[in-house]
Amino acid sequence: MGRNLAVLTYGCQMNKYDSERIVGILEGLDFQLTEDLTLADMILLNTCSIREKAEQKVFSQLGRLKRLKEGNPDLIIGVCGCIAQIEGDSIFQRAPQVDLVFGTLNIDRLPYMVREVEKKRGRVLEIAEDCNPDIQSPLTFRESRIRAWVSIIQGCNNYCTYCVVPYTRGRERSRSSSVILDEIRGLAEQGYKEVTLLGQNVNSYGKDRSDDIDFSELLSMVEEIDGIERIRFVTSHPKDISVKLMYAMRDLSKVCEHLHLPVQSGSDRILDMMGRGYTSEEYLSKVDRLKSLISGIAISTDIIVGFPGESDDDFKKTEEILRKVEYDSIFLFKYSPRPETLAASLSNHVPTDIKEERFDRLLMIQKEITLKKNRDMEGGIEEVLVEGPSKKDRKKLTARTRSNKIVNFSSNRDIKGEMADLKIVRGGLYSLDGEVIERGC
Ligand code: SF4
Predict the structure, then answer these.
(1) Cβ of 418: how many Cβ atoms within 10 Å?
(2) What is the spatial distance between Cα 83 and Cα 80, in angstroms, rounded to a whole number?
(3) How far is the CA of 129 from the centre of ligand 1 (A)?
(4) Could you tell me the end-to-end alpha-carbon distance of the chain, in angstroms, rounded to an integer?
(5) Which of 270-295 are b and which e, b meaning 16 or more Cβ less than 10 Å from the residue's Cβ?
(6) Would you say 161 and 209 are in contact if contact means Cβ atoms under 8 Å apart?
(7) Relative to the CA of 156, which ligand 1 atom is closest?
(8) Which alpha helices (H) appear in 143-211, and where do they start and end?
(9) Interval 225-252: pLDDT, tens
(10) Quick check: bond before 235 cis, omega within 30?
(11) Which of 113, 265, 392, 436 has a C-alpha 20 to 30 A away from that of 245?
(12) How far, in Å, from the CA of 227 to the mean position of ligand 1?
């Protein structure tokens, strides 16, 4: 009989993707996924260290798991992901109930590591500094049968002064185009309709390889794969997004009209201190060009409030950029110092109450913009990919527009996994409501 596995995932898409790989590999060892921690024989925490809060959450969860382990000494507790990569051995000191710690580049070694834990009934630690991105276990559990993530480049070379990723995921390593295309062809054969190409900075794809295929060319190759109807990608660094890529987005019919382009701040002084490599003017000129080339493009972004030394004037400039771009959605973060990063050693930290005030202000402005943009879509027709029953109302279906907006609608047919045309009848803050328009009418 199989054993039960629970995986708790914190942080970004990259971690979610890694968790799918972890589950796939462990299913190959006869583990089956459970959400009930009390039934689990093994619990893995795939951790994130991008913010202090995410790190605190992991250690409080480990505190709760300690009690579970007291009742079930055979329970295996593992910590992986970014905290494991940075803290390594010290996790065992902080949380002695942990049996296994492995880094972001060690996932494929899981069968060996699990055997070692079981054999030794003791602690196992594996933290690699480098790996070959083309050698990856094909066993991946995928949560969706319709949309899949495909990693194309791992790591980051940018060393933004607030960010821990180059320390947790290493330098950029692109997977070979043939390995990526084979994986996507396999997904198309299994019926997947949409792929999201994943990387910390997808625009750097290929720069570390000698085969001369850049990101735009990779997109053109994915476009040729029959069965795949939609292509998305995250994340794009504003300094690296090229005119060639903008034209590829315009010309390739499967590439969706949505771009996540993290601006982080509207102030040139702060952007410089963050080491982002662009000014607000350069950023805005790229956004203008994207909007003029790609009709209806939706743009989302990340913003950090309260970077050390951020003055009222700097913050005003972030407010201004929000209003100028009119983002479709934003991910807002309050700055928190991360170990090893340059920004952590800066003085002049912004008090928490001011960070909170600025956070709330941006959120309020963005809500107005999002609502207005979603209302403007009322009456229009959108092509959507149907994902399945709506989480809020199981009698309805939920689907996604090319611009990455969620639409809920009723249908008397089960059209999960199919493309459909919907008339948008209501634009809300978090989702839209639609009505099916029969194709061919
Ligand atoms: S581009 Fe900057 S923020 Fe993004 S992962 Fe790399 S270092 Fe971090």
Answers:
(1) 16
(2) 7
(3) 18
(4) 53
(5) bbebbebebebeebbebbeebeeebe
(6) no
(7) 6
(8) 165-169, 177-189
(9) 999 999 999 999 999 999 999 999 999 9
(10) yes
(11) 265
(12) 33
Task: Name the one residue in this structure whose structure tokens are 């607030």.
Answer: 162
Are β-strands 298-305 and 397-401 bridged in parallel, bridged antiparallel, or unpaired? unpaired
The answer, yes or no, to whether any atom of ligand 1 lies below 6 A from the CB of 12, is no
**201 Cα nearest atom in ligand 1:** 1
Structural domains in the chain plus CATH codes:
3-126 (3.40.50.12160), 147-373 (3.80.30.20), 381-437 (2.40.50.140)
Q: 421 C-alpha to center of ligand 1: Å?
A: 37
Amino acid present at 21: R
Residue 206 tokens, joined? 């290929």
Does the C-beta of 200 come closer than 6 Å to ligand 1?
yes
Q: Are 341 and 163 in contact (CB under 8 A)?
A: yes
262 lines ligand 1 (CB under 6 A): no
CA dist 318 and 336 (Å) reads: 18
Which run of H or E residues covers position 283? Answer: helix 280-293
Q: What is the pLDDT of residues 287-323, one digit of tens each?
A: 999 999 999 999 999 999 999 999 999 999 999 999 9
